[in-house]
């Protein structure tokens, strides 16, 4: 283990996790509000080597699911999300994002692009992460404006698409 004061980073992460649900959350009260909601915060540091000089991994566990994000700072590119759960990706966590869980089959990317384009939703960036050919995958899109609810609903009806989440960061 390495000896680093991670409390400022931890406060910012906890604030980020809860800011869509709690308008009053800030870096000063984040830990208190998490504790008052029976959220257990565990911080672990490690000096094990990875492909990144600095890598922060956050795992959020609820009764329904567990989600993991890993991020880093890349010179000249800023903050980047480089992993969602087990999927390697590389994108800036900013703007309007679509996270689309899907089965890795031919035509998915084209159908998503066509559906968004026909509804005047422009794709700025796209990342697709998978572990194995033909297995489960994730598509992360940065779009110029929020996608209307009916477009998100249309996406969820597409064959091989498992889940669609819209985020504004």
From TrEMBL:
Q: Which CDD domains match?
A: ACT_3PGDH-xct (cd04902)
Report the InterPro entries cross-referenced here. Answer: ACT-like_dom_sf, ACT_dom, ASB_dom_sf, PGDH_ASB_dom
Could you list the residue ranges that cross the membrane? none
Q: Which residues form the ACT domain?
A: 97-169
Q: Which Gene3D superfamilies match?
A: 3.30.70.260, D-3-phosphoglycerate dehydrogenase, domain 3
Pfam families the record matches: ACT, PGDH_inter
Q: What is this protein called?
A: ACT domain-containing protein
Lineage of the organism = unclassified sequences, metagenomes, ecological metagenomes
